[in-house]
Amino acid sequence: MSARELVVLGTASQVPTRHRNHNGYLLRWDGQGILFDPGEGTQRQMLRAGVAAHDIDRICVTHFHGDHSLGLAGVIQRINLDRVPHPVTAHYPASGQHFFERLRYATAYRETVELTEAPVAADGVLAITGAYTLDSFRLSHPVESYGYRLTEPDGRRMVPALLAAHGIQGPDVGRIQREGSLGGVPLDAVSEHRPGQRFAFVMDTRLCDGVYRLAEGCDLLVIESTFLDEDLALATDHGHLTAGQAGRVAAEAGVRHLVLTHFSQRYDDPELFEVQARAAGFEGAITVAQDLTVVPVPTRHH
Q1: Of 195, 202, 57, 89, which is closest to residue 139 (Cα–Cα)?
Q2: CA 27 to chain centre
Q3: Is there a contact between 199 and 213 (Cβ–Cβ < 8 Å)?
Q4: Is the separation of the CB atoms in 56 and 91 below 8 Å?
Q5: Are 7 and 294 in contact (CB under 8 A)?
Q6: Which of 51, 126, 176, 301 has the fewest CB atoms within 10 Å, measured from its CB?
Q7: 274 dihedral zone (left: phi>0; alpha: psi -120 to 50; beta)
Q8: DSSP strand E in 121-219: where?
Q9: Per-residue DSSP letters for 75-86?
Q10: Which residues lie closer than 8 Å to 50 by C-beta, 6 or more apart?
């Protein structure tokens, strides 16, 4: 299986800082790459992280604030400059179509790549591939915003003890997986249900139903935690989450690995975000994202 991992390109809220670039996140998933919210400077961060334009198969923009979308112009032109050999699909709120067009055609360049515009206008399924189903859910922000969720199809996991009990070994293991039965032994008798992995990307939003629907049962949840809990009123007013809210969502949704990001420049100690997420009851793994962090999607062993 190819790597499934999140490459963090930028983690700043609103403005870049000396240590944090504007937003940008690439999810590698079985040989495909999904670029989320490319803010200004994403091209350079891709270079620093070892991400090529050829790695991008899909672009997902949550909303059209600059720190989440100003890098689109450069990324789209780079995809064309490098003559990426496969089609690329772009998802973004339909209400921001004019913003997308302005960014796509911000300056003159030669189009060499098939870029399909697939705007999002409602909750639901955006794409179904062999590797995942991509869904979107509406969030609560001053401008229209959508979060994104990938769900791997459920499968079967072979159980060595059951295979041995039925005398199935070597090439026959592959045969029963492909054909569903072998010599009267059904696949169910030598395997167990394996739930598909789940990933969600939740950016600028207040607490709302969409946040919980995106986070439910995720192996890896990337979620904004712009403010600390003491600034809850400010967070709500500006359409953002606090670290404690993000931690509580993750705990209630059964998330396995929580990635906190999109930090306001007003805070000097990023570790406080983890402290507050823990205080809210989350007991799983936490990554307080830094630029160029790589976070594996946790595998499922049961």
Answers
A1: 202
A2: 6
A3: no
A4: no
A5: yes
A6: 301
A7: alpha
A8: 124-128, 133-138, 146-151, 155-158, 181-182, 185-186, 191-194, 198-202
A9: HHHHHHHTT-SS
A10: none
Residues labelled catalytic: 67
What is the tens place of the pLDDT at every residue in 272-285? 999 999 999 999 99
At residue 301, the pLDDT reads: 60
What does the block give as tokens for 103?
Answer: 């960014």
Report which residue type is found at 46: M
pLDDT for residue 1:
43
Quick check: 131 and 32 in contact, CB under 8 A? yes
Give the position of tokens 């089609």.
87
Rounded to the nearest 10°, the torsion over CA 7, 261, 301, 51 is: 0
Q: How far apart are CA 2 and CA 229, in angstroms?
A: 38
Q: Inform me whether the pLDDT recorded for 302 exceeds 60.
A: no
State the Cα–Cα distance between residues 166 and 68, nearest whole angstrom: 54
Go through the chain and tell me how many residues it has. 302
Reported as a single tens digit per residue, the pLDDT across 104-116 is: 999 999 999 999 9
> For residue 43, what are the CA distances in angstroms to 24, 87, 222?
10, 19, 21
